[in-house]
Structure formats: structure tokens, C-alpha cells
Design a protein that fits this description.
The protein is mostly beta strands. The protein has three helices and 14 strands. It has a single domain, classed as Pnp Oxidase, Chain A (Roll), CATH 2.30.110. A hairpin with an 8-residue loop joins β9 and β10.
Length: 200
């Protein structure tokens, strides 16, 4: 294998897409796609642009639902991508983004009430994590807000749960993957970790 030294403009090597629901200052709901999230125990670390409405909401009202769409929902996600609830649209977004408050309507997705937090869940997403933000700080360059959100309730579509357990069946669940700004699903299983809780 020969390696080249490159300078890519993005480093999205392939991570799950999440749709974050948060509450705006006027009690409307913001719905925003993102792909910078990872779990550490029951805490999900979220990275969002500091000037976006999601960052504003996470700081002012520290509740969020992290909704994970399946690959079939990529078009709904992409309909959200050029939208911002920020008004006015931040200057660095004005060329490619437009203001939109009614993001559920724009995306064709459906809000459903959460049980422990104020923001609603996205009905069509097979996995939904209700969470409260424990800490939110700027990244080293001041461009992103890094929020640590403790998951307080998990909702999973019946079809992706191992019957009689609280385990997600990895053979039944496939997240939508954002891979260098292209959407993918998962391919066939290659193997399992020695730590798996759902051995085959």
C-alpha cells in the first residue's frame, strides 16, 4: 500500500448521522443534522458549530434528543442540511443556507413527545436518546461547541431490539453514515468484538 500526503478540507471519515432536537428561545423546536457524536458510557459527546442555533439552544436550555436515522432517511436529512433556524443567517452561511424555523415540516419528519426532556423525538428515527447537557465548552479554536450530554432514556424501534432484552440487534440496525459528505449505510457484518453482548 502506497500512502500519499494530502490536506483534505474535511475529516468526516465515516460517522453516524444524528438529528438533534432542541428548544428555541420562543419555545419552537429546532431540528438539525450532525455527524460529530460519540458515546462514552451513558454520555454522548456532541460537536456542533458555535454560531448555529443548536449551540445557542444547548447552552440556554440544556436538553436534547439525539435521533439516529436509518439509511433510508438520508433524503430527509439532506433536506435539513441547507437550513438554519438562526435569524439572521450567520454571515459565513449566507451563500449556501437559508433561514427556516419549521424544520419538521421542511424535512417531512414527525415530532413525537419525549418522556423526560422537553425537545420532541423524531418518530421516523429507529433510535432516539433523550439527554441532558452536563457541560458545554468551546473547542480549542473556538469554532465548535463540545457538549457532553447524559442519556436519560433510550427509545428503540421494536424491530431492532433483541427480543426480551435491552440490546440493539446489530444485524437489524444500520445507522446512516456520513462519509466525506456522502451518505452510506452499513455493509455486511465482518465479525464481532470479544466484548459483544449479542453473540451469533
Amino acid at each position: 500500500m502506497t500512502h500519499l500526503t494530502i490536506e483534505p478540507s474535511i475529516l468526516y471519515v465515516g460517522t453516524p448521522v444524528a438529528l438533534l432536537t432542541t428548544v428555541n428561545e420562543d419555545d419552537t423546536v429546532n431540528l438539525a443534522p450532525m455527524s460529530s457524536a460519540w458515546a462514552l458510557g451513558d454520555v454522548v459527546v456532541l460537536g456542533v458549530g458555535v454560531s448555529g442555533q443548536t449551540a445557542i439552544n444547548l447552552r440556554a436550555r440544556p436538553e436534547v434528543v439525539i435521533n439516529y436515522p436509518s439509511p433510508e432517511q438520508w433524503e430527509s436529512v439532506e433536506r435539513l442540511a441547507p437550513l438554519t433556524a438562526a435569524d439572521p443567517v450567520p454571515s459565513h452561511k449566507q451563500a449556501r443556507f437559508r433561514h427556516e424555523r419549521a424544520k419538521f415540516t421542511a424535512s417531512g419528519l414527525t415530532p413525537v413527545p419525549s418522556e423526560l426532556v422537553t425537545p420532541p423525538r423524531v418518530a421516523e428515527c429507529p433510535l432516539q436518546f433523550e439527554a441532558t447537557v452536563l457541560e458545554a465548552d468551546l473547542d480549542a479554536k473556538g469554532n465548535f461547541l463540545i457538549a457532553q450530554a447524559r442519556v436519560v432514556r433510550v427509545h428503540a424501534a421494536r424491530e431492532i431490539v433483541v427480543p426480551g432484552t435491552s440490546h440493539v440487534d446489530p444485524a437489524a440496525w444500520s445507522p446512516l453514515i456520513y462519509n466525506f459528505r456522502h451518505y452510506y449505510g452499513l455493509g455486511p457484518e465482518l465479525g464481532e468484538s470479544f466484548r459483544t453482548e449479542t453473540p451469533r
